[in-house]
């Protein structure tokens, strides 16, 4: 099939690239990429390599995604796909299942021939020490690739921290759910990769990742916190908040912080002191997602505590962008309490960030308000959203772009 007359080939290629970006954002590691790319690849020969570049960019090996024999043979025999298109590999492992012969052969070919830049290991609360030797060999072989830049662990316990020494070019390290690291033996020196981006996102329960990262390895820690430029973390309990603040205090090159906190039982005390400890701050952007809702308790917002922490940064920062996302409580009592507190917080916040010399580089402030999905329609009707009139200085400011997104 030929490309329709009048439609340049570069435009059609651009469409494929846009579809690939959508696929990358929406892709679930256990689901195939969107069907539009597959259909577009059938329109003409010109589109085949363009669409394959996205279709085969991310390959998943999982007990729930069994490779068909024909697809295995195709990828093993094709001279182009593995060497040019595969950039990300994700494996989901358990202690009871491993890779069959066809999967192992394909993994070996990808490891040997691809220019892989991202690799991830996922499980369901399983222990690294219980994996088969073949599974460990596959994982460590991918980690040793010099082109690897991003490594992800998802719910893996007792992962050997010494394995990070294999990642010579690693710059981004991500932990999802509850992960823990197994320290090296006595006298074992660990070469630390220069990680610039750290992501820690628990989904349930206590997350021991922070404590693992702070474990002493001789005179050092697992990673060199002084190299970090971007940190994205979620905090679910007070026990996680303290080690997180210790990491922030050591991250002297930090430029971006994305922090999500369940505020109904996690106080913010210590955040401001950690961020203001650096005498030569480089932090440019802060996004705070404060979940102040609780399905059972009518706890008031912890917003006043946020202002106390921000006040410690006053006059000692280069902050350019500040975004505060707030989720309110789901009951009438919580909303009534939150209204009064939110109004006082808004006026204090308004004066704080606009005070002369307090945040001299600040150019954008965003306040986003939401409610949990479990809230009833009657609760929504009684809710009084944040108002622009509560932020008079920010509204009048010519130097700061202010955006308010009330619920």
TrEMBL record:
It comes from the Eukaryota. This is F-box domain-containing protein. It comes from Hypholoma sublateritium (strain FD-334 SS-4).
